[in-house]
């Protein structure tokens, strides 16, 4: 086999693997939204004394605002940058919001007790492992090389520390929690846009039936992993 043929086969294999990882990312993002972020946001709101009707309205509105904000942002920046590049930065933005809420949760749990803080930190770390795999694939698809993707994820993970510091320096963890209730549904809207608008259409354009089936299985696998991790964390 010639060197050129080897390179072509290697490139084809890399693209196929990336599509599988992107499929996993779609499932992971959808699982994160519907099995973790929105249920957690609902629980937080109910604990503040909001009625069920108001919780539903609040969740729906902020999720829609998140979808529209990310859609308009992508549309605007797509005129000055490549679509894939914009998708990567939008994903980092959504993860920044997500990590901020994680930091708030960690900081608040440490205010209760060191044991509770350590448990919460472990639960969030376990939850983030499959999420980070999908995020890595999205960044690679967006044009980041491997080291750039890793560095970007490390920087965004630092937002968790910021969230913890906000709680630890605040007078009241409950007050901060109430003021940040909008972040979870807003982030959910961002993740929905990235998964269903930015990634899924390209996966649906796959002409090979067997490849489409395998991509669908990876989406289901992504949802299943997030479901398992959420059960484990509970």
From TrEMBL:
Q: Where in the cell is it found?
A: Membrane
Q: Does the keyword Transmembrane helix apply?
A: yes
Enumerate the UniProt keywords alphabetically: Membrane, Transmembrane, Transmembrane helix
| TM stretches of this protein | 20-38, 59-80, 100-126, 152-170, 182-204, 216-233
Its main localization is membrane
Which GO molecular function, any one, fits this protein according to its record?
zinc ion transmembrane transporter activity
What Gene Ontology cellular component terms go with this record? membrane
The way it spans or sits in the membrane comes to: Multi-pass membrane protein
Q: Name one GO biological process term.
A: intracellular zinc ion homeostasis
User: Which parts form a coiled-coil structure per UniProt?
Assistant: none
Q: Which InterPro entries match?
A: ZIP (IPR003689)
What family does the database annotate? Belongs to the ZIP transporter (TC 2.A.5) family. KE4/Catsup subfamily.
| The name this protein goes by in its record | Uncharacterized protein
Organism whose genome encodes this protein: Medioppia subpectinata
